[in-house]
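Input record (one chain):
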Amino acid sequence: MKHQATGTLPPLPPRKGTTRDAPVTEPATEGDELGARIVAAAAGDEDAFATLYRTLQPRLLRYAVSLVGQDAEDVTAEAWLQIARDIRSFSGDTDAFRGWTARIVRNRALDQLRARARRPVQSTGLDEIFDAKAPDNTEDLAVERIFTDAAIALIASLPRDQREAVMLRAVVGLDAKSAGLVLGKSAAAVRVAAHRGLKNLGKRLAATPARSPGETQLPPRALNQ
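The corresponding structure, as predicted from the sequence alone:
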């Protein structure tokens, strides 16, 4: 099942009790545009919900790709069904909402991984990319090129703790505290894992061609929160 940004969104159901996945924080307010959309979507505004989907789906999809590969669209489709079901009972600010949606995607991805556990895993051939010895480099190179498809594939090859920390912080856009809530770790542990992951990526990316003009550059400050 494919679920792209231009696809049909699930309808918003009637409000129910508080969802167990929602963090206990101050409610989203209309102090920022995304916060206003969250408030409106929670009140039943389907246009606002569609805007949330278009805003968050690209990053959530990249996160899912790093976890389940080609099944990422199915995973995010299932996640958005749950988000549509539970958003009316969500309680939290804008950062909490980003973390909440990422946690739902992660849970659906883990379900998918458990479901495929008995099936043989097909090699992605990524090991061949790393045959050449890479020169010393800094994590800045990894940060600059984090949004390219090749970088997403490289991130997927990292150890799981580093992979998820890098994806949640650099791609989904969570701060260390919010990422820690998604992963069940402390903010300090997330920072360490992200730092190690970016250093590994920096070494691997040093052997690849320079960034093209059309690639998206991520501000380094995104990982300093």
